[in-house]
TrEMBL record:
<dbReference type="InterPro" id="IPR028081">
    <property type="entry name" value="Leu-bd"/>
</dbReference>
<feature type="domain" description="Leucine-binding protein">
    <location>
        <begin position="49"/>
        <end position="375"/>
    </location>
</feature>
<keyword id="KW-0732">Signal</keyword>
<comment type="similarity">
    <text>Belongs to the leucine-binding protein family.</text>
</comment>
<feature type="signal peptide">
    <location>
        <begin position="1"/>
        <end position="25"/>
    </location>
</feature>
<dbReference type="InterPro" id="IPR028082">
    <property type="entry name" value="Peripla_BP_I"/>
</dbReference>
<dbReference type="InterPro" id="IPR051010">
    <property type="entry name" value="BCAA_transport"/>
</dbReference>
<dbReference type="Pfam" id="PF13458">
    <property type="entry name" value="Peripla_BP_6"/>
</dbReference>
<protein>
    <submittedName>
        <fullName>Branched-chain amino acid transport system substrate-binding protein</fullName>
    </submittedName>
</protein>
Amino acid sequence: MRLRVGSAAAASAAVLLLAAGCVDGGEAPADNSGLSGTGAGADCVIEAPVKVGLVISITGGAAFIGGYQQQGLELAFDELNAQRGVEYQVLLEDDKTSPEEGVAHYAKLIDSEKVSVIAGPTLSTVAFAAFPDAQEAGVPAIGMSTTAEGIPDLGDYIFRDSLSERVALGASIPAAVEALDLKRVAILYDGVDEFTSSAYRTMKEALEGLGIDVVGEEEFATTDTSFTEQLNRVKAAEPDAVVLSALLGATIPLVKQARELGLTAPIIGGNAFNSPVMVDELGPAAEGLIVAGAWSSALQSEGNEQFVANFTQRYGRPPDQFAAQAYTAAHLIDVAVRADCDASREAIKDNLGQILEQETVLGTLSIDENGEVYQDPVVQIVRNGVLVPLES
Ligand code: 1QQ
């Protein structure tokens, strides 16, 4: 199945044709009728197709993530639709990396498509706009890359399988301090974006908590493209390392300019750094960059080796963290549906909040009734242009 953006009709037709496990291939019901089935778990059989909305950044500044998410979701729903009993009708929408677009597509999926559950959007900034509408409508929504502070607090219909930036930074900063014997650090941060501002606060707390001397704090705006002034002040402070909270748009020019200005200190970064697209674009400037995240191709987690092999074989490139989190979100939706063999919004909401020590390609993962995810972070460093586990 190729996940195509937009028109529901095309999508449902494609899914129906391919879903070997489907029962009668009919249209999804407007209400919950036909969404509660017989049996449970692997023996669960639900008559009606289960409509799943996907809202990701296929275009715009976060497309570097959305492209991997689309492929991770496609691979997962193909696997799920090859299983017996439950047929997923997947409706993919492009949030164009814009809160307004995110809200509009959410409204369409909730009100006209009447989906049972929605995965996405890609950025926390878009999620802060769209998730409240899902909460108000009583539609369960799961973030797959939304790591900002406060996302699960948006309501009891809001969940995420994307490790919070707070937990990730709580792992990467101490690991970097130990591995690099850091004493003096400077912080550079985008003070405009919701995600980067909350990450900056987390970074500062973590550093002060470790007794690290913060010798410089320099703010910039999401849309800035020149950082010379801030970088020269940081350079003059002679930090042992720089901690950077930025989205991709600013990250590339900022890190390249830092290296051009002779600022060679190691950089510790936020979630955007878990993208191989970013590492490739930075080239030599990325060497030694440290980041914590939720996944690594080296993880000895359940099904990870097969996931990496299947993804690479199908898409001609290895997956990244964002593909792995999207792939996992689809499988978690299936776990929630098959738990009571009920694909109604309420049943999915109840069961997404009771995911306990589920084995996934991300490792052992739990999601609590507040919608927060719990799993071990993975701290990585860029070596020869590739993210590899940071050995202490
Ligand atoms: C968020 C993020 C982005 C930087 C990457 C997806 O983590 O918006 O929460």
